[in-house]
Design brief:
Elements (H helix, E strand, L loop, with lengths): L1 H22 L1 E19 L3 E3 L8 E12 L7 E7 L2 E7 L4 E3 L2 E3 L4 E7 L2 E12 L2 E12 L1 E7 L2 E7 L2 E12 L5 E12 L2 E14 L2 E16 L2 E17 L1
Antiparallel strand pairs: 1-2, 1-3, 1-17, 3-4, 4-9, 5-8, 6-7, 8-11, 9-10, 10-13, 11-12, 13-14, 14-15, 15-16, 16-17
Keywords: Signal
InterPro entries: OMP_w_GlyGly
Protein name: TIGR04219 family outer membrane beta-barrel protein
Amino acid sequence: MQKRLIALAILAASASVATQADIVGATAGAYIWKQSWDGNVKAGSDSIDMNDDLGYDDETGKSFFVALEHPVPLLPNIRLQRTDLDISETNQLSRTFTFDGTVYTSTDTVDSTTDLSHTDATLYYEILDNWVNLDVGITVRAFDGEVRLSTTGREGSVDIDVPVPMAYVNARFDLPLTGLYASALANVISYGDNSISDITLGLGYEFGIVGLELGYRNFDVDLEDDDEEAKVTVDGYFLGVVIDI
């Protein structure tokens, strides 16, 4: 009887360790994003078109993330993500406008940079964990960029360096026995006339702990603060690698 109890205890301990191993893990990923820029910015009375006035078109950026999940009750999981989101261009102006108190004329060649790079810190809970995986939580997105225009002897700039809280939803749908999956991730917020939405859709194939993912990301910003305004859309396809341990 004693030996049987010892054997049962060992089996129970083994089952407990196995269960914990299933719910403790880390995920990391990185991808290259082909970005198409569109929209306008304003720091004063004039709205500046990113395509017509600044000559913006396409750019290539990158993003990487790491997420940690654990079995501690009530304590949220954590996810960190960094996205490089900036574009620079030199363009000959075809009209006169004012930006941040500086006048730019049709005779000026303007160097411009728009930087919306940001770091996301997300606390989330795993709601579902089977062939459908669903996480919900809160993201704090810290921007550390600017909009800068310069020409000979003149320069104007607006800093974009504020933290923004956003709702976070991340879903993954596994196709059993195939290695294929679909994913959707959203960070969104809307308050008054201001809104930010960041939607990522992906299709992936997983072999072992490594997954290859192809997808589309759409990032929309609509912000107003007195005479400063940014209405920007950056979207495009991405290719990434994800490692799930």
